[in-house]
Design brief:
GO terms for molecular function: methyltransferase activity. By secondary structure, the protein is α/β, with parallel strands linked by helices. The protein contains nine helices and nine strands. It folds into two domains: 49 residues; 184 residues, Vaccinia Virus protein VP39 (Rossmann fold, 3-Layer(aba) Sandwich), CATH 3.40.50. The strands form two sheets. It has a seven-stranded mixed sheet. It is globular, with a radius of gyration of 19 Å. The structure holds S-adenosylmethionine. S-adenosylmethionine binds next to helix 3, helix 5 and strand 2. The site of S-adenosylmethionine (SAM) has 23 residues, from helix 3, helix 5 and strand 2.
């Protein structure tokens, strides 16, 4: 195969995606979709930048609910969502009882950030790159949970390492890190010696099915079982129950 074949193919595919997204936008607008439709926005953003979005569809309610269940509405500190997209996980976190003023959503796409801010006017939406998480959060105060939908498997190693380092240093001891991944077979980039994995389970009611991993930062083990009462969790494999370090 000629050496320049693959780059040329990639360029052609990118060009094709751009043309296709323009045609799709026109067609969809004529069919009555508005530029505020979550479905419309996610399809267009996917065509514009597939590696950044990293998912063929937005998360299902089952997946979003599975992630949100691990955030304690009564905990102190902020809840930071990474990669809000069109907002299914944000909606699940609010439905879980997280006060909107405690929620900070980081989203890199300006179009999706505007959509999120319109959809959730009382939530703080920050348009920016999670690689600069510390800077984006400023001196917001303690963070008790990070819920991430970032496509860590389709990003390059360096940005992923930066994001992981920021996540580990931002969350207070005893706080949770929640991440989903379509790559069931590989370990989560968020795994670290000081993080205790308390849950790892595939949610099948999502396209494609995704594995949710939950870690407690700076945790030690306790005997008490995790209280998981929703149908998603009854079949869930709770790895361990953990408590914060004293
Ligand atoms: C897999 S989508 C998930 C969207 C939504 N949370 C859901 O579950 O449907 C990943 C989202 O992360 C955003 N994203 C990707 N890389 C990012 C980064 N480095 N910083 C912030 N957001 C990013 C994308 O724009 C996209 O909206």
């Amino acid at each position: 195969m000629h050496a320049s074949f693959l780059p040329r193919l990639a360029l052609r595919s990118a060009g094709f995606c751009k043309i296709f997204s323009r045609v799709l936008i026109r067609g969809a607008l004529q069919l009555g979709f508005t530029s505020r439709d979550p479905l419309f926005l996610s399809v267009v953003e996917n065509l514009r930048n597939p590696a950044m979005v990293g998912a063929p569809c937005r998360s299902s309610a089952a997946l979003a609910c599975c992630m949100a269940q691990f955030v304690d509405p009564d905990s102190e500190g902020y809840v930071v969502e990474l990669g809000g997209g069109t907002g299914p996980v944000t909606a699940a976190l609010l439905a879980r009882g997280i006060a909107p003023e405690r929620l900070i959503v980081i989203e890199r796409s300006p179009v999706l950030s505007c959509h999120l801010q319109r959809r959730f006017p009382f939530v703080r939406v920050v348009c920016g790159n999670a690689e600069r998480l510390l800077e984006l959060l400023g001196n917001c105060g303690p963070v008790s949970a990070i819920v991430s939908s970032l496509p860590l498997r389709s990003l390059k190693a360096e940005p992923v390492q930066a994001i992981v380092d920021h996540c580990h240093s931002v969350v207070s001891p005893g706080g949770v890190l929640v991440q989903f991944s379509y790559a069931f077979w590989s370990s989560s980039p968020l795994e670290a010696p000081h993080c205790e994995k308390i849950f790892s389970r595939v949610v099948w009611r999502n396209f494609p099915p995704a594995r949710v991993d939950v870690f407690i930062v700076g945790a030690k083990l306790a005997a008490e079982p995790h209280d998981l009462t929703t149908p998603e969790f009854r079949h869930g494999q709770v790895v361990r129950r953990a408590e914060a370090m004293p």
